Amino acid sequence: MLTYLQWGLWAAKRCVLSGLIVFIAYQGFLMLIKKRTPRQYKEFPKMLLVAEFLLSVYICTIMDITGILGGLQFAFSPSNLLGFFSVPFVGASIKMVTLNFLLFVPYGFLVFFCFRDSKLNWFKALLIGFITSLLIECTQAFTGRMTEIDDLLINTAGYVAGYLVAEGFHRIIVAKTRKRGILQCLLTILASVLLLFLLSFIANGDALQAEEDAYYNDIASPGGTRDEELAVLTALNVYIKGNEYDVLNNENSIYDTLYTDIGMDISNRSSLYAVEEYKENDRPQMDKEKIYFEIKYSEPQTFRFYSNREWVMSDVEYMLYCADEGELWYGASEKDIHFHAYYDSNEYPYEKDEMLMDDLDDWLKNQ
Fold it and tell me: Full-prediction pTM beyond 0.70?
């Protein structure tokens, strides 16, 4: 959440100039239709001008964050509009729902202070937020992005919350309505939290994704899983032209880097692998012209690949990997190999992993 907040602040900073242009154009338009005159500006409330400038910048910020400002490309397909006809929030990301809600809160807040003296009734105020969100979603349909009924609804809800809080603040300033203003702010905040809490029960995409990510742990996957594998690693040997090198126990070792390279190479191509039983129950004969990596663990490991969910490597304590062809033999030990996995794609011929080869070459130069 903090990352998204920092991203939003950076977008706002980036949109100051474009917001200034919008602000000047808006003031020129008001003068053109004679809603304001140069003489009026001398006695005009400075805070209102500040609010209008901030609103101009924030509108540009919203356009930037939603991908409309700066990267507009025409890529329309009728299927892009299907999101308007889906069931709202079911399986959505509650994190993204919350962020979209918060994105429009300042918008509603600023709209109130910019138009509070313009006899803006509640229907017109609501219409501003709804139409803004609708225009954003419709525009996104022409930029190759899917429109979302979730975004339309939650953006409008965030806008309304911001508008109500601003109205409450305005009432707090006036002594006669101070209690009502405080109550309005508190109830709006409470209702917003309650709304997002209730939506979390159906917008459970984050929870489902977390469960799935926890289930599918590729070899050397980022974070704790990789570190846990390294902690139980008892051997990482490389065989080159008949020579054996102990990578794990070498003083210039970069075993963690090489292990990660191997894991990424297998995991990234796992969808193109086929698996068969290995009936010889012994380590295969290694071709001296090829490079092999031997990996041993002190505890059985289980790997489930995100891009090949049918392939499960269970109770693995030994692996032999051929870097030249991508072949993999694995089992409970060197003398008890159960499976042979091999790269199986005629459309995309196997190529050595360049990162693995470069890291291996760098290590060998120091031996």
Answer: no
